[in-house]
């Protein structure tokens, strides 16, 4: 797979604030790429540079083979969902989407076909004729996502797209994105606070204070930074005594014991060595929360 | 090029829809000139009638002519003011900035000049619609009190509505380029509504002002727009008056009520006034395009998420 987004030594300062400070990364075509970071870490600034809303101070950005300076060549390939809706509140959903589609040169027939597809996928038919200001937060978000996808972009940029969405809508949105990735080879770059969304990404970049703190696949990051947990469901005092004597880090719950291991291999060794004491168990990988905490020293959830 | 023209059309359509969807904005745009008109008729009509009667002394003048003259004068005033004030109070550009819709267009493949032009055309359209409604009310009013407008007068009034609204729209858009605040828009709107009528000689005849003020006003293009409206609305009445009153008296009325204008003791011709208006429109258009280009370059440095 070739790189559809390439960023090298990107910098953006606002006075003394180094919003983006010498970051480099690349996104491959068709990849689901997640940007993790606290508020103010530099995620949105980077995204705004990619779509031409902000001008970079230094560095290189190339999107689909075009340098960011030629933004008019890049924009038809990009669809973006901002943190808050920026569509016209007084106009209906249909009118909003129609005018946006026409800006990309879609014919009215192409627009109708595309709209029909999204209406089916995101259950929009009932709200098409409603003004945007009359919609709920979740409905507005769905419209924002359709607006970003209406012109068949090659890259979809999602700036915390599912914040505040109910689980059903979130599932609908992700189901649509997955289908478009499969059928249209859509590349997705997202910033999110939801660890489950970061976990399904192909590649994750954690950004802190405008710098790339670490990057890699979720599995790589979990293996490198997060602990593994062994849950033993049927246990007796023998194993508790063993754990206590060995000074191992464990917690006792009503239905299971949870033992913390540095990595999967340590957990496996423990299971093999004590197979007579263990009847029912599971090994759980550390979460992206653990990765984030280990890398930045901060709880991601606290900042939501 | 063809694609860009289409985008301009759709953007303009969207801007106009947004303006008329906001019923309150449209209502306020329309009601303000109507209130002005009622105030004119209530407080100033009699004053101007008395002034004309003083000028002609004991000579006879049909009340129909008198009413047609004051009516035409009042409507020329209201229209010359409204073409500017409505333009200043009906801009979509600032609303887009406040709602961040401008960001949505920034990330769409639209040339900035196309977007700017769509704001101007939509603003112009909204202003002209409001002014045409006022003009229609004026025609109905004159139809009742005394109608002396010719077909050419009506066409010239329409041309003047277009030119004045265009200059107001362009000028307003220059100012809106520098603000993101609804407060500033409301402030400027109120300021323009309050001041412009005096500055362009719509509320008070220029001839009653001091020499210095007359000279200053002579440098403002709005003055010529007002005088052109006066000429178009009142030429027919004045020609009718000439049938029963001496020429000197009618000329006195015409100059006293700003149907003619002198600058440095030279009479400014109608053609010169028209060309001045056209020149001003071109000037503000070029300034707006320059500002728009420069602002676009600076915006990318300044906009924060």
Folded structure, characterized:
The complex is a heterodimer of chains A (304) and B (305). Chain A has 304 residues and is α/β, with parallel strands linked by helices. Chain A has two domains: 219 residues, Rossmann fold; 58 residues, 2-Layer Sandwich (Alpha-Beta Plaits). Chain A is built from eleven helices and 14 strands. In chain A, the strands form three sheets. Chain A has a six-stranded mixed β-sheet with strand order 6-7-8-3-9-10, sandwiched between helices. In chain A, strands 2-1-4-5 form a four-stranded antiparallel β-sheet. In chain A, helix 8 crosses helix 11. Chain A is globular and about 70 Å long. The model of chain A has no long low-confidence stretch (mean pLDDT 89). In chain B, strands 1-2 form a two-stranded antiparallel ribbon. Chain B starts with a helix and ends with a helix. Chain B is built from twelve helices and two strands. Chain B is elongated, with a radius of gyration of 21 Å. Chain B has 305 residues and is mainly alpha-helical. In chain B, helix 7 runs antiparallel to helix 10 and helix 7 runs parallel beside helix 12. Chain B has one domain. The chains are: A alpha/beta (304), B mainly alpha (305). At the A-B interface, helix 1 and helix 3 of A face helix 1 and helix 5 of B.
In short:
The complex is a heterodimer of chains A (304) and B (305). Chain A has 304 residues and is α/β, with parallel strands linked by helices.
């Amino acid at each position: 797979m070739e790189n559809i987004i390439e960023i090298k030594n990107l910098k953006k300062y606002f006075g003394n604030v180094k919003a983006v400070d010498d970051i480099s990364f690349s996104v491959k075509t068709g990849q689901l790429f997640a940007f993790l970071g606290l508020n103010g870490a530099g995620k949105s600034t980077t995204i705004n540079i990619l779509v031409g809303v902000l001008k970079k101070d230094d560095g290189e950005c190339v999107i689909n083979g075009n340098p960011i300076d030629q933004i008019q060549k890049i924009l038809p390939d990009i669809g973006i969902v901002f943190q808050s809706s920026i569509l016209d509140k007084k106009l209906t959903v249909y009118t909003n989407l129609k005018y946006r589609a026409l800006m990309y040169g879609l014919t009215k027939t192409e627009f109708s076909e595309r709209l029909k597809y999204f209406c089916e996928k995101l259950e929009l038919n009932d709200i098409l004729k409603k003004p945007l200001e009359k919609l709920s937060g979740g409905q507005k978000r769905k419209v924002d996502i359709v607006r970003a996808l209406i012109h068949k972009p090659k890259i979809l940029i999602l700036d915390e797209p599912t914040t505040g969405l109910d689980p059903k809508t979130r599932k609908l949105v992700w189901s649509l994105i997955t289908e478009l990735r499969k059928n249209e080879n859509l590349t997705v770059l997202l910033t999110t606070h939801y660890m489950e969304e970061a976990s399904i990404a192909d590649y994750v970049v954690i950004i802190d204070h405008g710098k790339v703190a670490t990057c890699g696949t979720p599995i790589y990051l979990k293996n490198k930074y997060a602990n593994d947990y062994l849950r033993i469901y049927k246990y007796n005092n023998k194993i508790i005594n063993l754990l206590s004597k060995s000074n191992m880090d464990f917690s006792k719950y009503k239905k299971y014991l949870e033992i913390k291991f540095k990595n999967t291999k340590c957990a496996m060794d423990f299971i093999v060595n004590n197979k007579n004491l263990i009847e029912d168990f599971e090994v759980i990988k550390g979460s992206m929360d653990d990765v984030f905490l280990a890398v930045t020293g901060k709880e991601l959830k606290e900042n939501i | 090029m063809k694609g860009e023209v289409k985008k301009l059309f759709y953007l303009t359509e969207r801007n106009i829809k947004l303006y008329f969807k906001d019923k309150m904005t449209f209502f306020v745009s329309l009601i303000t000139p109507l209130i002005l008109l009622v105030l004119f008729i209530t407080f100033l009509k009699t004053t101007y009638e008395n002034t004309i009667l003083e000028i002609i002394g004991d000579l006879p003048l049909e009340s129909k002519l008198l009413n047609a003259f004051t009516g035409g004068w009042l409507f020329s005033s209201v229209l010359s003011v409204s073409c500017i004030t409505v333009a200043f109070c009906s801009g979509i550009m600032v609303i887009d900035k406040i709602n961040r819709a401008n960001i949505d267009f920034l990330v769409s493949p639209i040339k900035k000049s196309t977007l700017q032009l769509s704001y101007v055309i939509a603003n112009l359209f909204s202003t002209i619609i409001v002014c045409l409604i006022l003009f229609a009310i004026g025609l109905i009013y004159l139809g009742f009190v005394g109608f002396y407008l010719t077909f050419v007068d009506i066409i010239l009034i329409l041309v003047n509505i277009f030119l004045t609204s265009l200059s107001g729209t362009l000028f307003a858009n220059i100012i809106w380029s520098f603000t993101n605040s609804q407060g500033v828009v409301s402030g400027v709107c109120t300021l323009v509504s309050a001041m412009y009528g005096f500055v362009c000689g719509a509320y008070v005849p220029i001839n009653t002002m001091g020499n210095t003020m007359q000279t200053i006003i002579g440098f403002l293009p709005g003055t010529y727009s007002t005088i052109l409206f006066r000429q178009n609305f009142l030429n027919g009445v004045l020609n009718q008056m000439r049938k029963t009153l001496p020429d000197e008296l009618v000329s006195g009325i015409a100059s006293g009520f700003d149907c003619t204008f002198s600058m440095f003791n030279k009479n400014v011709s109608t053609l010169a006034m028209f060309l001045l208006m056209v020149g001003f429109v071109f000037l503000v258009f070029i300034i707006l395009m320059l500002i728009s280009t420069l602002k676009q370059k600076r915006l990318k440095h300044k906009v924060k998420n």
